[in-house]
Design brief:
With about 120 residues, the chain is of the alpha/beta class. Helices cover about 45% and strands about 20% of the residues. The protein is globular and about 50 Å long.
Amino acid sequence: MATKRRLELRIGDAGAVLDRLEQKWNRLAAGETLEPERVLTLPDLPALLAALTPARWVLIGKLRAEGPLSVYELAKRLGRDYKNVHTDVRRLIELEVVERRDAKRVGVAWDLVRAEIRLGA
């Protein structure tokens, strides 16, 4: 069975990202084998909620369930305005949550999206 691709969502500053990279580097230097991972770190909860709105989660779910679609077909299946869906898809591509599959279709490569939100310092 193939390894499931996982996207982790985190809230943190640049220092937290650098700390994570240093830990990975040290583990690699010690000879450990690491599984590839993708972590999307946003500065705070409002940024996370602005980036991944409820409408965008529905869009992600539709692509995951139905496979790669054109933006036009996706908008039609969601019953949403093409321009708004196009804007959402463009932002999700920037965040690497959605990916271009070919010249016309986009899809979701992730099998699992996990969020980690730490409370307090």
